[in-house]
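Key result, reporting period 2: structure in, sequence out.
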C-alpha cells in the first residue's frame, strides 16, 4: 500500500471600492496626505526662491525650477485625485506603483537639483537648495511608504482582502 499527499492552495482576493467620485477631506489627516502636502509646499517655496532671484535665468535655476514645478503639479494632481477618490474609482490603475516610481525618481532629481543650486554663490539658490533637500527627504519618505504599500498588496484607496486557503488530501492506493 502506498500513500501520497496532495496539497492545493486556493487564493481568493476581494477588492471593495466605492466607484463614485466624492470629496473626502480626511485624506489630508493621514500620513501620506501630510507628506504630499509638505512636498507641494516645499516645491513651491523652492521655486519662489529661485524665481525671485535676479539670476533665475541661469541654467542651475532653470533646472531646479523644472524639477520643482513638475513635482508641484504631479503631487498636486495626485492630492486632488485622493481627495476626490479618483484613485478609488479607477482602482485597476496601479496608482501606488506609479507614485512609487515618481517619488523615487523625484528624490534623486531633487538631490541633483539641490546640489547644483547649492554649489553656486547666490544666496537665493542656496535657500532653494535647502528646500530642495527637504523636498528630497519628503519624496524619499513618500516613496518608502508607497513601497511598503505595494509590497503588502494594497491598493491606493479602498480595501483589498486576500484569503489563502490550503487543502491537503492524502490518498492511499493498494498495490498488488
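The corresponding designed sequence is given below.
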Amino acid at each position: 500500500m502506498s500513500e501520497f499527499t496532495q496539497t492545493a492552495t486556493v487564493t481568493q482576493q476581494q477588492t471593495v471600492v466605492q466607484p463614485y467620485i466624492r470629496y473626502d477631506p480626511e485624506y489630508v489627516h493621514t500620513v501620506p496626505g501630510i507628506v504630499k502636502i509638505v512636498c507641494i509646499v516645499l516645491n513651491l517655496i523652492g521655486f519662489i526662491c529661485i524665481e525671485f532671484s535676479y539670476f533665475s535665468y541661469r541654467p542651475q535655476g532653470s533646472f531646479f525650477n523644472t524639477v520643482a514645478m513638475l513635482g508641484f503639479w504631479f503631487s498636486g494632481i495626485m492630492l486632488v485625485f485622493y481627495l476626490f477618490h479618483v484613485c478609488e474609482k479607477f482602482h485597476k490603475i496601479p496608482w501606488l506603483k506609479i507614485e512609487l516610481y515618481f517619488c523615487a525618481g523625484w528624490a534623486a532629481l531633487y538631490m541633483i537639483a539641490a546640489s547644483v543650486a547649492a554649489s553656486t554663490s547666490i544666496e537665493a539658490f542656496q535657500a532653494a537648495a535647502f528646500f530642495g533637500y527637504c523636498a528630497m527627504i519628503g519624496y524619499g519618505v513618500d516613496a518608502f511608504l508607497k513601497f511598503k504599500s505595494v509590497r503588502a498588496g494594497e491598493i491606493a484607496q479602498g480595501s483589498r482582502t486576500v484569503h489563502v486557503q490550503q487543502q491537503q488530501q492524502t490518498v492511499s492506493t493498494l498495490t498488488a
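The radius of gyration is 24 Å. Strands lie at 2-16, 159-173. This case is discussed further under Risks and Mitigation.
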